From TrEMBL:
Keywords linked to the UniProt accession: Flavoprotein, FMN, NADP, Oxidoreductase, RNA-binding, tRNA processing, tRNA-binding
Domain of life per record: Bacteria
Protein name per the record: tRNA-dihydrouridine synthase A
Cofactor: FMN
Domain DUS-like FMN-binding: 1-276
Lineage per the UniProt record: Bacteria, Pseudomonadati, Pseudomonadota, Gammaproteobacteria, Alteromonadales
Organism: Alteromonas australica
Length: 301
């Protein structure tokens, strides 16, 4: 996610990504149609596969910038952005939103928002199945406190079968994903995937039905990410830039805490470990061997 102001006026490259990430979407934060169209065009030129409008982020900074969840109360503004962006690009323009904010009615007001934005040309909505309370709750609380209302999103798909509807919020297992897919077109997993990225290893077989797919081991993940790191040519790239997103790779496994600690302690600072992932893996595997030996000795006692 990047704001239009950062792209247009910022000095850094806020649209950079690695080609190995395809398919990849950029999410824009903004509410000025001309700025959104310009940034959508720049994103398409850089090779993005999709441009998404942020109508879900509830932070005060986002609210004060007139984008994010506060735009749920301004569907005409979002519709204008959709029209301007679609006239500027050929890639899909999609919207990520909530089911409402503050005292908005989850049925009538949400349906009105969807209808106005869809009539402007948006055909894909990713819906976080919670309201956002812009008054009284922090961004973190807004991801957890407002109750989930999955049936509201299911009902949207029933009433607007012409639209592609994906659901988001509190989804923790692939079994949950399959249950949701009985009612909507797609599922977005956010915090669970970040905390436990290995959950994605069985998506091809469990969700996509690919019987020939075989899950990659955690060790193979580390090996491939090490190779990815070694391929990077950006002089500003550091192993920690990739490793920090892998802290949860061994969640629920023996050695998981050792992995997190090694990466955190040795990936940053003045002298970060250049072989961070491989050395961290060695620490985990040593711990796992010791546990296995202990369990065998205990079983034979």
């Amino acid at each position: 996610m990047v704001t239009t102001g950062a792209i247009i006026y910022g000095k850094g490259d806020y649209l950079g990504f690695n080609t190995e990430e395809h398919p990849v979407a950029v999410q824009l934060g903004g509410s000025d149609p001309s700025d959104m169209a310009k940034c959508a065009e720049l994103s398409q030129e850089r090779g993005y596969d999709e441009v998404n409008i942020n109508v879900g982020c509830p932070s005060d900074r986002v609210k004060n910038g007139s984008f994010g969840a506060c735009l749920m109360a301004q569907p005409d503004v979002v519709a204008s952005c959709v029209k301007a962006m679609q006239s500027a690009v050929d890639i899909p323009v999609t919207v990520k939103c909530r089911i409402g904010i503050d005292d908005m009615d989850e049925d009538e007001d949400f349906a009105r928002f969807i209808d106005i934005v869809a009539d402007a040309g948006c055909k894909t909505f990713i819906v976080h199945a919670r309201k956002a309370w812009l008054q009284g709750l922090s961004p973190k609380e807004n991801r957890e406190v407002p109750p989930l209302n999955y049936p509201r999103v299911y009902n949207l798909k029933k009433t607007r079968p012409d639209l592609s509807i994906s659901i988001n919020g509190g989804i923790k297992t692939l079994d949950d994903v399959n249950t949701h897919l009985l009612n909507v077109d797609g599922v977005m997993m956010g915090r669970e995937v970040y905390a436990n990225p290995y959950i994605l290893a069985n998506v091809d077989s469990t969700i996509m039905g690919d019987e020939s797919a075989h899950g990659i081991s955690r060790r193979e993940v580390v090996m491939q990410m090490q190779q990815y790191i070694e391929r990077q040519e950006d002089p500003y790239f550091k192993p920690w830039h990739a490793a920090r997103h892998m802290l949860g790779l061994f969640q629920g496994q023996a050695g998981g805490r050792i992995w997190r600690r090694y990466l955190s302690q040795n990936g940053t600072g003045k002298n970060p470990d250049p072989n961070l992932l491989m050395n961290g893996l060695a620490e985990v595997e040593n711990a796992q061997r010791e546990i296995d030996l202990y369990n065998k000795a205990k079983a034979n006692a």
